[in-house]
Amino acid sequence: MDFEKIHNNFSMDAMLDYFKKLIKEYDVKFIILKIDSESLDKCKDLKFSKISNINKLQNHLNFQKGYQNTLPEPPCIYQNPFYNPSSFFLYDGFLIQDVYRKFLNLNFNDEPAVVLTDKLLCTFDESDSKYHARTIVFGNPAIISFSGIIMGPARPREYHLKSLFYQNNDSEFIELLNYEYAEKFLDYDNPKINHAFSIFLVQYFYFIRDKKFKFCNNNNCILFNCHWQEDLLSLIEKGELCNKHLKCLNKFFKNCSNEFRTDY
Q1: pLDDT tens digits, residue range 52-88?
Q2: Long-range contacts of the stretch 245-250 (C-beta < 8 A, 24+)
Q3: Helices 193-209 and 229-238 meet at what angle, rounded to 10?
């Protein structure tokens, strides 16, 4: 997609430079392809990946069959006045992954690919029977969501407590609250978004190298799973590979191919 339309500070070069820094300048080759987003939006299966009920898992079986004789359910629209834009369609991360896989003509065993998207991706959590926004969906292709980076990790607790006093259409209150906490979360116009993308690229790199991949428990390691915006900002500022995963990195490059591609 053309990120410049919604985010003037996004830079593929800056993202890849920071990625290389995070993996200690090891030589990882990227084949970068541009996806025609208008063509993708015309894919007939895309509409079936839109979530119709955040408390109900989409019908994955019907999706696999191709929906020959069905119509999509009306999609729900996520609305939150504290974000700009404030309304989004929600997409099932694994269903839209199938859409991208078909669009790119990929098989599971093909060279790993990464798709960068502005679409808000969610996956269903069985523990609370609800969809949750995600920053990245692992697999082939992996999908890193621009909107997921903004809305997936939660903003500070104090921010959410104050938002309880929000009155409908009180744009001044929203503006003041966002200004007060501007340094506590990422937004679309923040150039640090490039570094956030790089962190998730590294996580995917480890995912494809290690079949037993797990997130790191060290909150200073860039393989840490960030549930809060402040955690993500901390990784952007001072995160690096912990000793354990630095050793893994050295092993990866002794025996493995170093090539995968990013698509955007």
Answers
A1: 888 878 665 454 555 444 555 667 776 777 777 677 7
A2: 245/206, 245/216, 245/221, 246/24, 248/206, 248/209, 248/210, 249/23, 249/24, 249/26
A3: 90
